[in-house]
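Changelog note: in this version the structure field was regenerated for every chain. One regenerated record is shown below for reference.
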Amino acid sequence: MDIHGEDSFRAKTYSIAAFNIEKLPMQLQEIDREKLFGIKGIGQSIGNKVVEMLDTGKLEILHAYIAKTPAGVIEMLNIKGIGPKKIHTIWKEMEVESLGELLYACNENRLTLYKGFGEKTQANLQQSIEFYFLNQGHFLYAELEELYPQVEGYLKKLFGEDKVHIAGKYRRQELTLDELEFVVLATNEETKPKFQTAQPPELIEETASSLLYKLKNGLKLRLFTGGRSMGKELFHLTGSAEFLHAFETNFPGLSVDSPDETEYFNKAGIPFILPALREKPGIIEKAKKNQLPQLIQASDIKGIIHSHSNWSDGVNTIEEMAAACIHRGYEYLVISDHSQSAFYANGLKEDRIREQHKQVDELNRKLAPFRIFKSIESDILNNGALDYPDDVLKTFDLVIASVHSNLKMNEEKAMARLIKAIEDPHTTILGHMTGRLLLSRNGYPLDHNKIIDACAANKVAIELNAHPRRLDIDWRYIDHALEKGVLISIDPDAHALEGFDDVKYGVLAAQKAGVESSNNLSSFSLSMFEEYLAKMKRH
């Protein structure tokens, strides 16, 4: 009832009854029904609820509340530091309905805008949610990237440097994982005793050729055992099922007994296919034609596109962000604070836009040849319009158009909304296409290919939002964008200086799609980027 923000007096009567029942010296079912209504705090209404529970084992009013409460909102009760009233604020005022969304809001420094949520509360909440997720057994690639070196180092210490190698989804740079997979050149009988430590991990599955452990932090560790050839094991335990089937179809009966998996590709007469590309079967044909892409690298990123300063919901000043970019060797920074409809993020009204643009002009004079571009992350409104009139939109060097509100759309509504925004002549980049948050929010339904076709027709780039909880557009649809000549833009959506480092996760996702530096807008040098924007303005 508190979560739904209902009458506090009614909710309190349940609390008082629960408190008094807790203090009873005996179980409720041992009390005479007539005497039940004489217990302090239990009147006729609450008494009837108690009788209902004793007779049926459930409380209908509770089930009614649960039925109309999103599961993600109920899950928030598991997090230390937020009670029902704070959850009400999170759900009804922030419009956040899952822990993943709440963690993302913490990352964006957004909670401090609401009553009862200071910086300390936000930091503690963020830490509690991260701990909770860690123990659920589902991980972002970025989360496992921190744990992986420790696990690998431990295994190599146990078995030897040349007898351990990462395989599976982590080696293929999958965006989310539920386990780390390693090839270990040892038998089950040789392996199991090595894990009999003072605090042994839990062995939850054993087959003739694998062991699955659950570590104390919730991470599952799968060891593929019993093999003798590291090259053979790695090849068969890295690629997806579709990739391996395509390889076998094209090169039937090919087998290798070598410590180096490159021998598989040498024998097949094709170039080595990097693990990240061993997902879709079509990559085999590209290899046969010697048309494998030269994958984009983090060093190919020349500028930071899509970033938020303390003018909206970012932490740092524009000058601090520019200095951090210069320190990292970037040539330019695109400041794209939130637009006016994003009141929850201190979005910019027209007068503040003019003030910000003056500051950017001053900083550009001071920091040349480095350049800061004037941008906005414009909300795409319900009707598909951008968040400002034309005379304001034309003052920006570029516009990133994104959906932030009313995410619960059917495909027809979502398509109409996005395509209208894409067709707006001021739109330069379509931001985080589906609004998804990995492991917590699926995003609204879209026909990806039609959206990509619309971007191609209107010369709009598509963002690959590099935040490890977004990575949106999904890499699986990028090949269609590349075929249509649509530029991808790997952008960190940074709300603090450390957010710039997320670029690498966007690059890892882009590599899975075969993106080259020439396909990516943020790989353009400053002069190329200026030329591109000038061309878009003429368009």
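Spot check on this record: The longest strand covers residues 371-379. Residues 141-159 form the longest helix (19 residues).
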